[in-house]
Design goal:
Organism: Thalictrum thalictroides (Rue-anemone)
Shape: rod-shaped
Order of helices and strands: HHEEEEEEEH
Largest sheet: 5 strands, mixed
Strand content: 25-35%
Keywords: Kinase, Membrane, Receptor, Signal, Transferase, Transmembrane, Transmembrane helix
Pfam families: GUB_WAK_bind
Helix content: 10-25%
Subcellular location: Membrane
Structural class: alpha+beta
Strand order of the largest sheet: 3-4-5-6-7
Protein name: LEAF RUST 10 DISEASE-RESISTANCE LOCUS RECEPTOR-LIKE PROTEIN KINASE-like 2.1
């Protein structure tokens, strides 16, 4: 009797082994990174809703946002952020147009502030934005 090995039989066998490998691939190889899962949920702070990167707040891990963009959620239903030792009230975050509307807490609490200040933000903090 002659021993004959069909190439089709070999290819079929190889195909079954490859399919079996991918079907039984350990789930851990496909699981989401826990760091991503921790940061993927948007959060609310004061009256601002669905906030995400680059902002973060206390109680969330710092790598979920830019270090300079920590929001402080206040009891009076407001959000505040601090840049170069000046505290600002966050009025609006417009993610689609990449705009952040702020008011100094001094001007917010006083209808007639005695002085006006020009404020410049360091450009390196905003380098991720399109211009």
């Amino acid at each position: 009797m002659s021993s004959y090995f069909s190439p089709y039989l070999f290819l079929s066998f190889l195909f079954i082994i490859i399919i079996n490998f991918f079907v039984n691939l350990p789930i851990s190889f496909c699981a989401d990174d826990p760091n991503f899962l921790a940061c993927s949920q948007a959060f609310d702070c004061g009256n601002i809703r669905k906030i995400s990167y680059p902002f973060w707040k206390s109680g969330r891990v710092e790598y979920c946002g830019h270090p300079d963009f920590e929001l402080k959620c206040q009891d009076d239903d407001s959000a505040e952020i601090q840049f170069e030792s000046v505290t600002y009230r966050v009025l609006r975050i417009d993610k689609s147009n990449r705009k952040l509307q702020l008011a100094t807490t001094v001007s917010w609490n006083d209808n007639c502030p005695s002085t006006f200040d020009n404020i410049s933000f360091p450009s390196n903090d905003w380098s991720y934005l399109d211009r």
